[in-house]
Amino acid sequence: MDKNSTVGYGKILSLFDAGTFVEIGAYVARSDADMENYDGVICGYGSVDGKLTYAFAQDMDRMKGAFGAAGAKKIGMLYRMAIRNGAPVIGIFESAGTVIYDGSAALAAYGAWLKCVSDASGVIPQIALVSGACGGTAAVVASMFDFIIAVQDQAQLYVTTPFVLGKESATAETAASDGLAAIVCDSEAAALAKARELAAALPQNNCDHADAPIDDVTRRLTDGVVSSTAIADFGKTIPLYTAYGEEAACALGYLGGDLVAFVSVTGLLSVNGARKIAKTVNFCDSFNIPVITLVDSEGITATAEEEHAPAAAAFARLASAYATAATPRVTVITGKAYGAAFTLLGSRSLGADLVLALPGTTVSALAPDKAVAFVWNDKITNEKSREEVEAEWIEQYAAIEKAAANGDIDDVIPADELRMRLCSAIYMLANSAEGKPARRHPVMPL
What we know:
- By secondary structure, the protein is of the alpha/beta class.
- It has two domains: 7-201, Alpha-Beta Complex (2-enoyl-CoA Hydratase, Chain A, domain 1); 222-360 and 399-429, 2-enoyl-CoA Hydratase, Chain A, domain 1, CATH 3.90.226.
- The chain contains 15 helices and 17 strands.
- The chain has helices at 7-15, 69-85, 104-120, 137-143, 162-165, 172-177, 188-201, 228-231, 271-286, 309-324, 340-344, 368-375, 386-398, 400-405, 418-429; strands at 22-24, 41-48, 51-58, 89-93, 126-130, 133-135, 147-151, 156-158, 183-185, 237-240, 248-255, 258-269, 291-300, 329-338, 354-357, 362-364, 411-412.
- Strand 10 (237-240) and strand 11 (248-255) form a beta hairpin.
- Helix 2 packs parallel to helix 3 (104-120) and helix 9 (271-286) packs parallel to helix 10 (309-324).
- The chain is globular, with a radius of gyration of 25 Å.
């Protein structure tokens, strides 16, 4: 069989711009195999939308994609080149498992693979495309990538084999609902196209700046509708983790030609939503991608099973992600911001560079209905209804102007100006730096 005619070779070719793929380690084979029995991993580099990109693919036509010492050697070579040249890695995962004849060398190979991915984390973007079986340690490797794209009805992600836990535990849908897969595509072709789109959108490395053609900066929001797609250039975003923590929407998109992440929360923020946002903010901070947070939340919540340690840890990770990030952070109150939701979702006190709000929005330590029930119940009479008392509470203690007067909100602006103000904010914060700027000495007066 021609090594260039396999299914895996066709997949890796489709990732790159036509005619740009160059294979590396093409003749690497297992030490006990003849030269026609090529290793089960294809590695190489090329151009994706004009950007240098590296990729590997486990090939079911080559030893059923089995991974061992030879594959680790090729992937190690690929990663050294990718890190040295500051370019992303796309990995296509589909394998029957391990080259068991390699013995301890096969186990060491997985260790070397894990080390490669760990060394590259936060330095270059890593995108995993799971198009078939991805089990055991390979699933751990894929989970260390920045994003997993899974193919519906084909991807199988598992640590323990499905026949032990049930087939439904290893599907693409399960991976998405558990927050493992960032994107699920209905076909392999769609997944490959999405991997190209994501690689083209992201910066090349943690020192690069991703930009794109600029939409009209002065364009106003249609009908005052506030959403990530309404704000983003050309109304286009790449949604992430849509089946996990669904009240929290995370997406990548461009704003004024600059790549940004949009985080939108509607309703009560769950533990899964907190984890999802924390991961997104942490990734963005690694690659200096600004984060725009849209808040319309009545607080935080957790199930009985999540209470105490799991919930506290999840919300702590969220707070830490926002507080430690050095990338530009802009928060917009679009509706309600009650209790811990106001604090945790990119508040000024947590380190946000700019906090804006729309007119008529509310900020309160406790939801107005609960606050009234707690301290103002005696004000409800035959002449004054509960709704009237709650409106009075909002006017006195929860109106957005109160938060602005305290310095927790920088400005209250109409919705149709929001896109322009956000474009301006990202431009202003583009070169912001932590701490005092370095200088040799002050300039003396004449």
